[in-house]
# Entry
Amino acid sequence: MTRLQTFLALAVLSILFSAPAAMAQSNENYIEYRQKVMGANGAAMGAIGDIIKNKLPLSGNIADHARVVNINAKLIASAFKHDASEGKTDAKSEIWKDWAKFEEAAKKLETASAKLAEAGSKGDMAAIGDAIKGVGGACKGCHDDFRKPKEQSYKNVK
Amino acid sequence: MIRLLPPGLMAALVLICLPLGVTAQDAPDPKRGEYLVQATGGCGCHTDYKHKGAKLAGGRPIKTPFGLAYASNITPDRNTGLGVWSEEDFVRAMTQGVGLHGKELFPVFPYTSFTRIERRDLRDLWAYLRTVPPVDQPSKEQGFAPPFSFRFGVKVWKALNFKPEAFRPDPAQPEAWNRGAYLVTALGHCAECHTPRNPMGALKSDMTYAGSVDGPEGEFAPNITPDSATGIGKWSTADIVYYLQTGLDPQGDSAQGLMGELIENGYSKLTEQDLQAVATYLKALKPIYHRREKRKT
# Structure
């Protein structure tokens, strides 16, 4: 091997090994991403709440808001797959200790939001009301086990 | 001198007079009683949901700042529940905090609020409790630390901190406000969690509904006065009603812990009119600026 060849080989090797290090995603990147996914669920449910409690003439939109939740629900497992419970997050480490239960809880949101979408598309307000409670129950079920209570939220720790 | 009437005529008179005093509306109504149970949040402290315990059969541990409390069995089981209780016994427990044979009850059982429940409602509540399937499950001993563990201490505590009192409507306020006041202060017993307590465990009356870090189960109960910085001043009446119906707050987030449970098993089943009344009352409270306190431990 000539010195040039050795140099080139080393250069190629160093690029190969250093590139992934430079590209490594931090826990913060994952945390911020999944907070946006979950925040979208809150926004969609909040929008449905606005329509109902303020009697906005937009009940035809409820089904689509529910579909947003439904699509998001399907993203939860992949969004949380990466274990990161430290830092600016309210995710409890129980998520990764009991991953199957967490996935099941996310699945419940998928089912409940599908029901709400269906009720929404039929425009049956009583069924919509029940289905909203179902979604709320799915949110709470998962939050009680896997999210820090609000008083312990990173947002309140100074 | 009053001349005594012949016994037969006397009995006939009593029979005639009775219907005047007791109308059909006054007959105990377990269905109405069930609704009132929901207005208390479902009496969920008496059901050990976590361990799939039988309905109202007690045994649920409740963390308090003074130690672990175990809710008692309130099913009509004769040995372990309220089977041998009379309506009067029930009324005394609810309004005076005294159980069978003069047993002083720990104020974890919120008779401090229930004392305001109206007599007719108490009767219907009792009628409902009689219809619950009896469950044979002995109540557990309380796990309080001294001096809070002594029944005699309860007597002293009550002398200092408790006065049986009826709910008094305010004639100057609209009907909805009064209905809300009754639901919030008597049946709903909101203050028990949402009002901070002094070192003796009594509610701080000047801080009513301003939030407490010492809620049951060690949970934080937020400030529910209409203060816009630290309470729920930004919530509209509709927001409050919707929250109590669905467990979802204006941000679309779910109620947590015990509150979520109370909503699911109780408050969400109330009529819209009653929830409107609750919201009307809460919105009319004096706003108290009170941020989350530091936990004492």
Q: What stands out?
A: Chain B has a mean pLDDT of 88.
